Structure formats: structure tokens, C-alpha cells
Amino acid sequence: MRVLHCCDTWPPQVNGVSVVTTLMVDGLLASHVDVALITPRYPAHMHDIVGMVRPTIEHLTLPSVQLPVYKDVRVSAPLAGRVEKFVRDFRPNLVHVDTEFIVGRLGARAARRLGIPIVTSFHTNFAQYMASYGAPWLSRWVERDLVRFHQRSRLILTPSSVTKNWLNQNGLEHVDVFGRAVDIAVFSPEKRSDEWRRRVGAGGAKGAGGAGDVITFLHVGRLAAEKNLDLLLDGFAIARARLGARVQLIIAGDGPVARPLRARAPEGTTFIGFIDRDTELPGLYASCDAFLNTSLTETLGLVILESMASGLPVAAVAAGGIADHLRHEENGLAIDNTALSVADAVVRLTNDSDLRARLGAGGRRWAEHLSWEREMDRLVGRYQEVVAGARRTSGPSRALSDSV
């Protein structure tokens, strides 16, 4: 089988969509599927930061520029002719459109013109972001555009039951939940290290709450308006006032609201910026003591699965895709969307080492049932169904190869 992925974000850009898409491509290659890519082209200095992590495969990169309001995001040149030629030359059985922006739309257009079946991914409900960016009146328009975009695909993949239900309610029926997985070998309690605890300023090697020990809470993710991070800081400020220097918060990641968040962060908060996902992030997770998340817009919440796999108890608002995984008092604490609820969870986890251990063990057990190998077996099977269905209804496209 030959599959073309079209995605508007790709390493060295790091976010949930680029991470999940690269994991998907890696899994397809391991399953002996021929894969090609169309993505934005990134400037050389970004590659110097994290490097290119994928093997050499057929890969069309489109010239891109920074999005003015969010400099980490690249907007690709709409080179429709170049995209269509690449699709013709690669001759895929199927085009998987991972995003709804320029690269995704150009890939979908070429696939339709060439009679190639399309699978789409619905990673993010951008309509939910409009209020966070001061334009709530655009929410309904964005919803309609998203629905129109996905209507013409034969299969829509989305990472949570919440987004599947939303798509179904908007008349989109061919929807499957995919991508709820984590690599439990990469993210593991065994990656805990004294060195990491020294680096983040935590006292004690085990974080057991002994004399002189600091209980270290972690947040990982993009620092963006839709992540509800003001609530995180407000809640931690209340907890810090109660607990003093016994507790600290580490925030890993970067984004457009990093500067104002740093300016208002309470004492005991440390921003460490971007860290390498492959070489540093697993050790950071495992060397902290608990994970905090207050986002209301996650369709998956990959960081929740990674922290659970690392043996951390999670305190999070059970919204969006996070609700599929967070089990109150079993693998974490479900908190309300209030600063007081955040603070109460921090205080409780700080004062109760047995609770931290029990919830952390519950999270690890949960993660152990979410393997990427299983998800990739399902994905290849769904691809085969889509290609077979397209051939039954329209016959083989001239752009398709003979192998499935």
C-alpha cells in the first residue's frame, strides 16, 4: 500500500498534531507501508534546535512563512500545481489529510481531481479557540468550514469520543476514534533521575515528601491562549500560599503567551522553555511528582497519557479528550475549572505520598493498555477498507498503484 500524508505541521515544529502524525508515519513504515509526505518547509535554524527525526522518504516541502500572531506556526505557499504533480508521481492508493489548512486543502484537492480516496484527521476543534483569541463570533463559521472540509472524506479519524460525538452531531458519520496511544517504553517511571531533580531544583531524590523534599508539579505543552494557563497559575498561587516552599511548579514548553505568563507567575514557578522530546522529556516527566493540566480544549491530551505512562498522578480538568482517560481517584484527580479546585488538588497531592503513589500506579496501568502497535494495526486495516470501498464504488483510479 502507498499512502500520502499531507500535514501543515511537522518536525522541527513540536505540537500534539506533529507528534501524533510523526508517530503514525513511523508506525506505517514499520508496517511496510510506502509513505510520502507533503509539509511546510522550515528554516535551517529550526532544524538546528531539534533536528530532523524521520528517515529519508519521498517528501515535498512547500515554501512557508511565519504566521504573524503565532511565530512558531508556518503558513505554506498555495502551490497547487506542484502538489498535484507530486501526487501523480507518487501514485498513492490513499491520501491522508492530517490538517485543515493550506497543505491539507491542497492535498485533498489533488486527491479529488485524481480520483484518489481521502482519509482526514480531526485533531482540533478550532471553533473552540475563537473565544480565547477574542473572536467568539467566528465560532459558528469555523464549525461550518470544518464540517464542509471533512464531508468529502471516506473516513475521519479523531482522538476522542467527545470529538467523535461532535462530528456525528454535525452529520458526519464515517468517524473512528484513533490515536489514543503512548509508548510505555519511552515514557516510563524508570527514567526518573537524581540529575533531573537537581536540574529543576527539587529537594530529595524520591519526592516522597520527607524533610527538605520539594514536591514538584509539572505542566508540559504549548503556551497558548486556548490552554487556560491563567487558571493553572492562579490555582498554584493559592496552593503555594498554603504550602510555601514545599511545592514548586515546572512549566515546559513555549508559545505566544510565554512572556505574559512568566510576568504573572507566582513564586515557586519555573519556566524551562522547549526541551527535546526524544532525549529530555521522558526524564523530566519521570523525575517530577505530579502533573497539572487545566486545558478545556484538548481533543486527546497526549501529555496526560505521557505523564500517566511515566508514573505521575494527574490532576486535570476532565474536559474534551482528557475525560476519556482520567478516572477520578484511580489514576488521577478530576478538578473543576476553578483556581480553588486546582489549589485543593495540589495541596492534597503534596500532603499525601500514599495517594501520589496509588494514583501514579493507576496511571501507569492505564497507559500499558494503550499501545501504538495495536493502533497501527487498526489503522492499516481501516486504510485497506477505504481503498477497497473506493474501488467498489468507482473503480481503480489511474493514480493508484496495483498493490494494496
Summarize the structure.
With 404 residues, the protein is α/β, with parallel strands linked by helices. The chain has 14 helices and 15 strands. 40% of the residues lie in helices and 18% in strands.
Set down the secondary structure blueprint.
Layout: E1 2-6, H1 16-30, E2 34-40, H2 44-50, E3 59-62, E4 64-67, E5 70-76, H3 80-90, E6 94-97, H4 102-114, E7 118-121, H5 139-151, E8 155-158, H6 161-169, E9 175-177, H7 194-199, E10 215-220, H8 229-243, E11 247-252, H9 258-264, E12 269-273, H10 281-287, E13 290-293, H11 302-309, E14 314-317, E15 332-335, H12 339-351, H13 353-367, H14 372-394
Parallel strand pairs: 1-2, 1-6, 2-3, 6-7, 7-8, 8-9, 10-11, 10-13, 11-12, 13-14, 14-15
Antiparallel strand pairs: 4-5
Helix pairs in contact: 1-14, 3-4, 8-12, 11-13
Structure description:
This protein is an alpha/beta fold and about 400 residues long. The protein folds into two domains: about 1-180 and about 370-395, Glycogen Phosphorylase B (Rossmann fold); about 190-365, Glycogen Phosphorylase B (Rossmann fold, 3-Layer(aba) Sandwich), CATH 3.40.50. Helix content is about 40%, strand content about 20%. The chain has helices at about 15-30, 45-50, 80-90, 100-115, 140-150, 160-170, 195-200, 230-245, 260-265, 280-285, 300-310, 340-350, 355-365, 370-395; strands at about 1-5, 35-40, 60, 65, 70-75, 95, 120, 155-160, 175, 215-220, 245-250, 270-275, 290-295, 315, 330-335. The strands form three sheets. It has a seven-stranded parallel sheet, with helices on both faces. Helix 9 links the parallel strand 11 (about 245-250) and strand 12. Helix 8 crosses helix 12 (about 340-350). Residues about 50-55, about 205-210 and about 395-404 have low confidence and may be disordered.
